[in-house]
């Protein structure tokens, strides 16, 4: 049985009419993308270099093993965007859903706290927890540039908490650029264990680098198996003809949906364990393709939850959406006949929650077809390190291919950088006085305020 399968029936015009894609258009676009794919495989992007990715495994395991002697109770990860979303996705998919709540669920692993925001309320509450076990806390600081203000401010806070404990420098691991940036300078000065983000791999493409692999290794996740899944997907995409190639076909569909006015790309996992994958995908698509007036808008939705909040819009609202279902059936749990006197519940009694979950998915998909809302389904038959690695690489390749057909650079983020500059200016960074004056002018301009 295949591990990952894609069903595109629901996006084709022969299924849903005018809101679908003509097969000729799909295969013509796929052929163009396949020509580009062949060129890419001759001169791969850095995120495709598995020799480079695997070269970090030894050092990752060495550092992960070295911190075991501290009997770590708390793993605190400081990072934002691509520095944290991949790890969040991995942990959500492969660890117990209530990992932090009970020692039995943790199986000897530490609690984890991923601080991908600087809201002071959350920061303060995590600090209260960490302060009780500061000598058994491992801090992972992740910033490709080494100068991300959110991450650096967090680092300054948590370092101050840890520095009163013995051997604290061995319990702070920094993941940053190999040569430049403030974090690299700090590592040289203060002697923290460190790992490098490989040259040419930006944050949103970094999940299969030490950024995602080191925290996973600390938690006992098989990172070599994850890379094996990704590398096998690399081989599949390279050798599979374009008409049967998931990466090429998916890139063509998402692109054609966009230019046909289906600019809202909804990812709707029917699987709690893959819900964080939608968050990872949102950044990957939005930050890679949202340039020069181009780019679809990625939206996260969860089945079955959002059948009761979003589905009305998807079915009866504007025809500007394409839905991608991620489906995994999950585990069995029988439904007992515990309310026998209600005859209208007979259809549930004696059935299984897994079957109900599948029925909910089928019902949603069918309702979208009847409403002429395009949808496709990716079924992940098993969720483990191997298939997760394969899914990461599949979507990285999809976005790289889409960047080509939009004729944009999928690997930069100029809009994000501008926001960072203004943030630093407001906080008083030298050399940004002009930008600070611009913000100050905004603050002193007469406002049109309406309040309660």
In percent, how much strand structure appears in the residues? 5-15%
- Please identify, by name, the CATH architecture of the largest domain: 3-Layer(aba) Sandwich
Total count of helical runs of at least 4 residues: 18
Q: Strand sequence of the main sheet, in spatial order?
A: 1-10-9-7-8
Instruction: Tally the structural domains.
Output: 2
* Distance between the amino and carboxyl termini: 59 Å
How many strand units?
10
* Oligomeric assembly: single chain
**Biggest β-sheet strands, sense, barrel:** 5 strands, mixed
Give an overview in words.
This protein is 48% helix and 12% strand. It is an alpha/beta fold. Strand 9, helix 15 and strand 10 form a beta-alpha-beta unit. The chain is globular and about 65 Å long. It has two domains: 218 residues, Rossmann fold, CATH 3.40.50; 172 residues, Glucose-6-phosphate isomerase like protein, domain 1 (Rossmann fold), CATH 3.40.50. The strands form two sheets. Strands 1-10-9-7-8 form a five-stranded mixed beta sheet, with helices on both faces.
């Amino acid at each position: 049985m295949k591990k990952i399968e894609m069903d595109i029936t629901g996006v084709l015009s022969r299924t849903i009419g005018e809101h679908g894609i003509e097969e000729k258009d799909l295969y013509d676009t796929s052929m163009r993308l396949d020509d580009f794919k062949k060129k890419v495989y001759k001169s791969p992007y850095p995120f495709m270099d598995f020799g480079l990715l695997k070269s970090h495994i030894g050092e990752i395991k060495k550092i992960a093993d070295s911190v075991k002697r501290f009997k770590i109770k708390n793993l605190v990860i400081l990072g934002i965007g691509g520095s944290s979303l991949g790890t969040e996705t991995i942990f959500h998919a492969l660890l117990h859903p209530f990992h932090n709540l009970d020692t039995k669920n943790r199986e000897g692993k530490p609690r984890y706290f991923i601080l991908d925001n600087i809201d002071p309320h959350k920061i303060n509450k995590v600090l209260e927890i960490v302060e009780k076990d500061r000598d058994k806390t491992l801090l992972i600081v992740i910033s490709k540039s080494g100068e991300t203000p959110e991450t650096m401010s967090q680092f300054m806070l948590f370092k101050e908490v840890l520095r009163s404990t013995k051997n604290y420098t061995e319990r702070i691991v920094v993941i940053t650029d190999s040569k430049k940036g403030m974090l690299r300078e700090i590592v040289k000065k203060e002697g923290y264990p460190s790992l490098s983000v490989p040259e040419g791999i930006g944050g949103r493409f970094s999940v299969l680098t030490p950024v995602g692999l080191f925290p996973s290794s600390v938690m006992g996740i098989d990172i070599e198996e994850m890379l094996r899944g990704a590398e096998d997907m690399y081989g599949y995409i390279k050798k599979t003809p374009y008409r049967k190639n998931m990466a090429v076909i998916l890139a063509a569909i998402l692109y054609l949906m966009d230019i046909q006015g289906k600019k809202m790309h909804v990812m709707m996992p029917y699987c709690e364990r893959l819900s964080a994958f939608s968050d990872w995908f949102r950044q990957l698509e939005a930050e890679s393709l949202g340039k020069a007036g181009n780019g679809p808008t990625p939206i996260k939705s969860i089945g079955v939850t959002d059948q009761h909040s979003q589905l009305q819009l998807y079915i009866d609202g504007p025809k500007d959406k394409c839905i991608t279902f991620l489906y995994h059936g999950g585990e069995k749990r029988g439904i007992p006949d515990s309310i026998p006197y209600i005859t209208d519940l007979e259809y549930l009694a004696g059935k299984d929650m897994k079957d109900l979950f599948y029925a909910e998915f089928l019902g949603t998909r069918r309702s979208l077809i009847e409403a002429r809302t395009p949808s496709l389904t990716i079924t992940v038959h098993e969720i483990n390190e191997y298939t997760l690695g394969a899914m990461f690489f599949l979507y990285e390749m999809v976005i790289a291919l889409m960047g080509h057909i939009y004729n944009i650079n999928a690997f930069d983020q100029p809009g994000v950088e501008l926001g960072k500059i203004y943030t630093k200016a407001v906080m008083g960074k030298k050399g940004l006085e002009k930008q600070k004056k611009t913000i100050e002018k905004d603050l002193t301009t007469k406002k049109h305020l309406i309040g309660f």
